Amino acid sequence: MNKATLKKLVAEYLRKGEAHYDAGKLTQAATDFIETEGMKAGRFDKLSDVYICEFCQRAYEPEEVKGVRMLKTFRGYTVDMRLQEFREMKRGKPLRFIPFTGMEGRALLYLIHEQVTA
């Protein structure tokens, strides 16, 4: 995914968070929306810790193939649950790391959660 696609993903994630907040649902997306608005207003310095449900952890834990642990991928990103980051590796381009704690990472985790629990 390129940066424009990730920006759209983050914007969509925050819109869903706002909708959840308005509906009275306390989801991770709603919490992130509240904290993002608080950061804009100067009430918060940073976002809170990320919660990853057990279903997502089990679905994206590494598989062991012939004694080697292979990480799983999601939408072109390698998912590393141990280091809590997504990695994008393309030939001829530098590695790109997206931590779970950033808004892009949270948006990707939200999509993973929707896929796993659907």
Plain-language structure description:
There is one protein chain. The chain has 4 helices and 6 strands; from the N terminus they run αααββββββα. The model has no long low-confidence stretch (mean pLDDT 85). Helices cover 47% and strands 17% of the residues. The protein has helices spanning 3-22, 28-41, 54-59, 103-117; strands spanning 63-65, 68-70, 73-74, 77-80, 85-88, 96-99. The chain is globular. The protein has 118 residues and is α+β, with helices and mostly antiparallel strands.
Radius of gyration using CA atoms only: 15 Å
Number of strand segments: 6
Sheet/helix structural class: alpha+beta
Give the termini separation.
23 Å
What's the number of structural domains? 1
What's the tally of helices? 4
What is the string of helix and strand elements? HHHEEEEEEH
Using the alpha-carbon principal axes, give the shape: globular
Q: Bin the strand percentage.
A: 15-25%
- Given as residue ranges, the uncertain stretches (5+ residues, pLDDT < 50) are none
Mean pLDDT: 85
**For the report, how would you describe the main beta sheet?**
4 strands, antiparallel
- Which strands sit side by side, in order, in the main sheet? 3-4-5-6
> Helicity, in percent?
40-55%
Brief digest:
With 118 residues, this protein is an alpha+beta fold.
Write the layout of secondary structure elements.
Elements: H1 3-22, H2 28-41, H3 54-59, E1 63-65, E2 68-70, E3 73-74, E4 77-80, E5 85-88, E6 96-99, H4 103-117
Antiparallel strand pairs: 1-2, 3-4, 4-5, 5-6
Helix pairs in contact: 1-2, 1-4
